């Protein structure tokens, strides 16, 4: 399918059909993923099902090793399940070839990582433009849209700065700008405040809240209860299963599973976490995948490596 060229700089479009109006943006069904073989096999996810509505903000919490990152990687098409399916905007992603999955991911999903994953030799504007270019937006439109988003995010003065000269909080704001600039169906954030101090975390949460206010659908992994409490719904994972869902404020979500209880919530939220930086290095086709039309060239794919975001 040919990528659409935006008609104006401020409205980057995706080449895929939009999600059905009023329907879920994300439908996860019976996701199961194990690592290792034989006696060493370990189930990271055991039959997880979850539906996320358009515009919803869902936080996923749980103790270290419970499967949060695995879930995010499967949702974002960075990994494939053993069993189950992931549908984004009505498109089944797990059945796609690695190349098609990578292309769909770039058009439909924005990623935010704990360690920002900015391209070090591109300036702030270049990083945001790159996110748009790999989604199929033309060069001039990407530049104009990047300027607009950086302005919205209070980062216009830093447009020519290299990531290494920025604070962690500034880098994460750039990473969020990159993730949302193309108005993807879904933004996935893996511990977006995990490396930040309280003040910087607060600013990042403010940005996420603003994006949520604009209707952006967000799925976020976090260990910070104050951050999770910003979401519409908090999903508790334990041992690869959803054990509870709550609306912040104590209300049980309609689709809640087995109760975790308040002690479970505290345990889930308080446990320490480590970031898994995602590089789908078995996905070699993705490194040479090239959208047609006005999309980016292989130089961008060289910069991107094998799809680290
Ligand atoms: N590539 C892999 N190879 C082998 N085992 C893996 C791999 N990725 C994850 N696992 C295992 O799967 C389980 C779930 O891991 P995952 O990273 O999804 O948990 P998590 O909840 O995100 O943990 P944390 O909060 O520490 O980041 C863990 O036991 C982990 O060791």
TrEMBL record:
GO CC annotations on file: membrane protein complex; plasma membrane
Region (Disordered): 1-25, 281-309
Segments forming domain ABC transporter: 26-264
UniProt keyword annotations, A-Z: ATP-binding, Nucleotide-binding, Transport
InterPro entries in UniProt: AAA+_ATPase, ABC_transporter-like_ATP-bd, ABC_transporter-like_CS, ABC_transpr_LolD-like, MacB-like_ATP-bd, P-loop_NTPase
Keyword Amino-acid biosynthesis: no
Molecular function in Gene Ontology: ATP binding; ATP hydrolysis activity; transmembrane transporter activity
Annotated Low complexity bias: 1-19, 288-309
CDD domains cross-referenced by the UniProt entry: ABC_MJ0796_LolCDE_FtsE
A Pfam family that the UniProt record links to this protein: ABC_tran
Listed PROSITE patterns: ABC_TRANSPORTER_1, ABC_TRANSPORTER_2
Name by which UniProt lists this protein: ABC transporter ATP-binding protein
Organism: Frankia nepalensis
